[in-house]
């Protein structure tokens, strides 16, 4: 009799366990976070603000759709960033700013948290969507980072058409360059009235795979050949299924020297900090103490998200499978 | 009487304390570690081996002299790397290998542990000593990383003469390229019979300031425009007075994806690991598990040194103010 009871209890426990695991599977959280750059954002006309919000919403929805349909986080990241690159509003792809020689030089990077594979390009001038090329570097080459003409040569080998650099010309960006040149001497790097235009996306898919990507047109009037943090794995972009996926925006030099994107992961892995605490500490303590402006977006393997910044604004938003959703520009 | 005794005891303790502090000041350890690349090193003729050892000794002594005379760690690092760049034996500067287009593309980086300032250049073709230019980027620009022609333009602004790329032509390196091209298809990156030619130096000066630097000619037959870990702050080079200074050599792509140089520092700062344990863990556990070859050199703020590698050899050596000294090529 006691034996039968024992078996009964064991079976009940097993059934309970299986149902819990199943529920857990159903509950698997997924979602994504995006950004369109941080900086001193003020006096945006209401009409323009609406355009920003609409584009952020569109990108979030397109990326989320992929995740919802069971697609992988890399595809979501790529899709979101491509949308932002094709839009004039953000400093990446079509909306890239001009360097001091009046040329558009674009950078991008992407990282797969499942494999730690990564791809990045810097200083390309004839690539319509740098994020697509970064992904090809990751998936179709044994290398991680290609620069300038070498990156464009690789693009051609991959069958990507090089476009006329004229594509990146916009009157607004040209005027910004002229304005920056007028101010020359007062170097724009220390100019706080500046948006660190970069776009980025981090995503967690239904299979628990994390991915991160970043794309930028650099800084208006930056010196020819200067590379910021966006194409640097560990600085502007990092993803690791063990911890989190991160994309940064800000004063690139400081983000490189502080290995910001990887540092979030290291604080989580080595110090057992939460994603939120790690990101907050880096942006609002470590970087702030160095007078370094910027922000980051992050998502961890549980679907927790964070979007800290130490500037007056950051174009940002997220959408999660638990229904939570936000799209914002300014502080709360 | 008791009061006098108390004063006497207090004075004695104070004197003892002062003498201890003074001794500690005298004892301030300083020194440096250098490397000339890791890889499958075998069958070096005895005569050539002597040349390698002699050059490593020369570089160590020149760097040490600077530290001994109270010079700073950045000067020691720069001096050591310049000596190795000017020598045909190592894959950096004069001895740089050819890329797949038969061109020499050089990279270098340097970091100051006291300020976290850093400078780096990648893909230069007409710079005799890339390490000097990296230092100028750190000290004379507001940027961290310059690529290709942009870096050379900056060099000219700094008064550095651009040299004829012919300077880097050596028959031995050209033959290596031809050999690599013959083997094409079998990509050289996964070819284990390969020395990851890079040179590097880390130093601790009498003032407790750490510095790190790395310089390379890349990989023989590498794709035009490919960037490895050497010019990437946090991957190939990192220095922070709080923890350590590190310079890496190995399969660059893995060193980038694992943010190796910064990871040593992060393990020390966040996990309270010793320099030796952190470096050993990364090279012989983390990287080995990814089938990633290479090694690193490190020195911490107390003057402890480490030189782990997971290949058959690494050109390396160190000299410390406590009299310890070693110059080696193979495993113990």
Shape of chain A: globular
* Overall SS class of chain A: alpha+beta
Biggest interface and which pair forms it? A-B, 47 and 47 residues
Sheet with the most strands, sense and barrel status of chain A = 9 strands, mixed
Q: How is the quaternary structure best described? A: homodimer
Q: End-to-end span of chain A in angstroms?
A: 64 Å
Strand-helix topology:
2 copies of one chain form a homodimer.
Chain A: H1 2-27, E1 31-39, H2 46-68, H3 73-85, E2 106-112, E3 118-124, H4 130-140, E4 145-147, H5 148-157, H6 171-182, E5 195-196, E6 198-204, E7 210-216, E8 226-227, E9 237-239, E10 244-250, H7 252-257, H8 260-271, H9 275-289, E11 294-300, E12 305-306, E13 313-320, E14 325-330
Parallel strand pairs in A: 3-4
Antiparallel strand pairs in A: 1-5, 1-6, 1-13, 2-3, 2-7, 6-7, 9-10, 10-11, 11-12, 13-14
Description:
The structure is a homodimer of 332-residue chains. In chain A, strands 1, 2, 3, 4, 5, 6, 7, 13 and 14 form a 9-stranded mixed sheet that branches. In chain A, strands 9-10-11-12 form a 4-stranded antiparallel sheet. In chain A, helix 2 runs antiparallel to helix 3 and helix 3 runs antiparallel to helix 4. Chain A has helices spanning 2-27, 46-68, 73-85, 130-140, 148-157, 171-182, 252-257, 260-271, 275-289, and strands at residues 31-39, 106-112, 118-124, 145-147, 195-196, 198-204, 210-216, 226-227, 237-239, 244-250, 294-300, 305-306, 313-320, 325-330. By secondary structure, chain A is of the alpha+beta class. At the A-B interface, strand 3, strand 4, helix 5, strand 8 and helix 7 of A face strand 3, strand 4, helix 5, strand 8 and helix 7 of B.
């Amino acid at each position: 009799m006691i034996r039968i009871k024992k078996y009964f209890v064991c079976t009940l426990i097993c059934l309970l366990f299986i149902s819990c695991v199943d529920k857990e599977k159903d509950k698997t959280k997924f979602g994504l976070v995006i950004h369109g750059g941080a900086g001193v954002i003020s006096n945006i006309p209401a009409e323009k603000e609406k355009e920003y919000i609409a584009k952020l919403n569109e990108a979030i929805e397109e990326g989320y759709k992929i995740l919802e349909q069971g697609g992988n986080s890399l595809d979501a990241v790529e899709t979101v960033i491509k949308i932002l690159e094709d839009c004039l509003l953000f400093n990446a792809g079509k909306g890239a700013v001009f360097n001091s020689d009046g040329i558009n030089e674009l950078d991008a990077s992407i990282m797969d948290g499942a494999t730690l594979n990564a791809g990045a390009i810097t200083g390309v001038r004839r690539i319509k969507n740098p994020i697509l090329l970064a992904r090809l570097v990751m998936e179709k080459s044994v290398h991680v980072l290609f620069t300038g003409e070498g990156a464009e040569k690789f693009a051609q080998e991959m069958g990507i058409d090089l476009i006329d650099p004229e594509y990146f010309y916009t009157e607004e960006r040209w005027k910004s360059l002229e304005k920056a040149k007028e101010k020359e001497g007062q170097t724009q790097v220390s100019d706080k009235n500046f948006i660190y235009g970069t776009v980025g996306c981090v995503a967690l898919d239904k299979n628990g795979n994390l991915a991160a990507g970043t794309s930028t047109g650099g800084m208006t009037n930056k010196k020819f050949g200067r590379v910021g943090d966006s194409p640097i794995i560990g600085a502007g972009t990092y993803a690791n299924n063990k911890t989190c996926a991160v994309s940064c925006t800000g004063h690139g030099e400081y983000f490189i020297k502080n290995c910001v994107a990887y540092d979030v992961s290291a604080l989580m892995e080595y110090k057992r900090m939460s994603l939120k605490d790690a990101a907050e500490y880096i942006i609002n303590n470590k970087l702030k103490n160095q007078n370094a402006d910027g922000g980051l977006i992050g998502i961890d393997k549980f679907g927790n998200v964070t979007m800290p910044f130490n500037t007056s604004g950051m174009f940002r938003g997220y959408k999660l499978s638990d229904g939570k959703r936000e799209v914002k520009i300014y502080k709360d």
